[in-house]
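Help wanted!
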Amino acid sequence: MKLSKEYFDSLVSKKQAENTVFFDCLPSTNTYLKELLRKSAVPSGYCVIADSQTNGKGRLGRSFSSPEGVGIYLSFALNVEGIPPEEVSRLTAWSAVSVRRAILKAFCIDCKIKWVNDLVYGTKKVCGILTESVFDTDGKIKYAVIGIGVNVNNKTTDFPEELRDKAISLKMISGKTYEREALAAKIICELEALSAAFPPKKDEYLSEYKENCAVIGKKAFFGSPEKSGTAISVNDDFSLAVLTDEGETVNISYGDVGIKGFYGV
Ligand code: BTN
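Answered by r_m:
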């Protein structure tokens, strides 16, 4: 079934209903929203949702599988003028806390966070988050575009073969079929709460991130040439502290960290 804008509107405030647009199909909701923000005046909190994407983007140049009728592909604009870039770069981690809360509140499913931008159930991926920046003419960050993809009602066969041992949907977890509009509404409600809290309420989001981070104590692989170690903690700037096999502590702020047992690693 296609997403119903009418049903979604009945679940959110009048303002948020006005600020959310739906599409049957886009190449990428993030790319669409970034273009829109460059071209026209758009309020903070503006949101783009598509029923499918033909070029869904993930972190580090990867793609995000976005079949029609089963997932949520959503991009949310946040005005971050005046906020230091290093704070803005932490929005992906903040958003992971928000989406985790939304899934828990909407459907009572307790996902965990795989550093830095994924939600997982067990060792499989339920949700990915890609935050991108839009700059003003002076080169300062004006907007962050928070892009969220959630596997909601996918069956195993809805995932490309190479993802079948790495990804899971909420339906595959519980056996239930969920209303995607209800989850989209909850996610946006949580992102509105994030907008009000960012950045002063960092401690609240950080402690929830730490409590629900799935990778602590696990074997980690990172860097090029690859190093390995054990993920020991999330630092106060949301970076991941890894104790290498050589006994050195490395704080990782960006890039990929493979975790043994997750996604076929
Ligand atoms: C990742 O897994 O590395 C991040 C995936 C982010 C996917 C979402 S779907 C909505 C938005 N539009 C995109 O093209 N990507 C994000």
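OP: Thanks! One thing I noticed: The helical segments are 5-11, 14-18, 29-39, 85-88, 91-107, 170-174, 180-197, 202-211.
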